[in-house]
Amino acid sequence: MAQFRFEAKVIYWRGPSPFFFVPIPLQHSEEIRRISKVVTYGWGMIPVEAVIGGVVFSTSLFPKNETYLLPLKTNVRRKINVTADDTVSVDMTVHSGAPK
Fold this sequence. Notes:
Layout: E1 2-9, E2 11-13, E3 19-23, H1 26-39, E4 46-52, E5 55-64, E6 67-72, H2 74-80, E7 87-94
Antiparallel strand pairs: 1-7, 2-3, 3-6, 4-5, 4-7, 5-6
């Protein structure tokens, strides 16, 4: 289990399924890549618990280019009132096994 704290700007990905993500800063991606072999449950997906704006949620990071993306589910975005280009503070813990 590894913990990370960072700030990043929310991005919008148009497709094929539109969604919002928080890109993991590059300085954390190497450590995540190192532990991914132990925690992934397939296709490079990495289970995490994240906290943004006091809202706790479980999801999975997935690799994209040199880093990883943290998906922001619609219900989470609504609770914390964020959209594309907003900067968020994230506390994130990497777990092993698929998210619940």
